[in-house]
Design brief:
The chain is an all-alpha fold and 188 residues long. The protein is built from 10 helices and no strands.
């Protein structure tokens, strides 16, 4: 008989009322969240504002910005978008250093900015996790080559230029531009 007392009509109404309130709140949240689904940028930037210490939110926004950068023809707008991508990808690896795909994207982003040393730094960090990724090895060789080539062309620290060029050649022995750049450095 005591068990029947717990199943009073008031408890059923209270449970039903609570369920309706929860349902209404989630419905409201769903409707307001739908506005954030306008496009990936709106969705991911909202997520970053809400969860600024989320590696997933930061990386999603960084990857989105990299895609947008590739599609942007306006040079000034592209630079701003690329800087925004770098900001979010660097936050990602600061939060979670094991987000290795971000190292690859950061290497690519810095390469696009012609900051070859920073690009090679991130490619090297990627290779600490996956040393046999052919694309990253090739990208690292290219970053070393471009840094060495730039230094040789400017006749700036030719010994260091040759060091970068030989690092590049060691990673990609079939690159004629590296061999040409070594010749330029020796010529200088």
């Amino acid at each position: 008989e005591t068990d029947r007392g717990l199943q009073s009509p008031h408890l059923g109404k209270l449970t039903m009322g609570f369920s309706c309130v929860v349902f209404a709140l989630f419905s409201f949240k769903t409707v307001t969240r739908n506005q954030n689904w306008k496009d990936n940028y709106t969705l991911f930037s909202t997520d970053v504002k809400v969860s600024h210490n989320s590696a997933k939110a930061q990386s999603s926004l960084g990857f989105d910005r990299m895609s947008k950068y590739r599609d942007t023809r306006d040079t000034n707008a592209a630079k701003i978008i690329l800087d925004e991508a770098i900001l979010h990808l660097e936050k990602t690896v600061a939060i979670n250093p094991r987000e290795i795909s971000c190292y690859h994207y950061l290497g690519n982003a810095y390469y696009m900015k012609r900051n070859y040393l920073k690009a090679s730094e991130y490619y090297s960090k990627y290779m600490d996790f996956q040393p046999n990724n052919y694309d990253v090895i090739k990208n690292l060789a290219t970053a070393y080559r471009e840094e060495g080539r730039a230094m040789a062309m400017k006749q700036k620290d030719l010994e260091q230029a040759l060091d970068y060029l030989f690092r590049s050649l060691k990673l990609n022995q079939n690159d004629p531009r590296t061999v040409e750049s070594i010749g330029i450095a020796y010529g200088a």
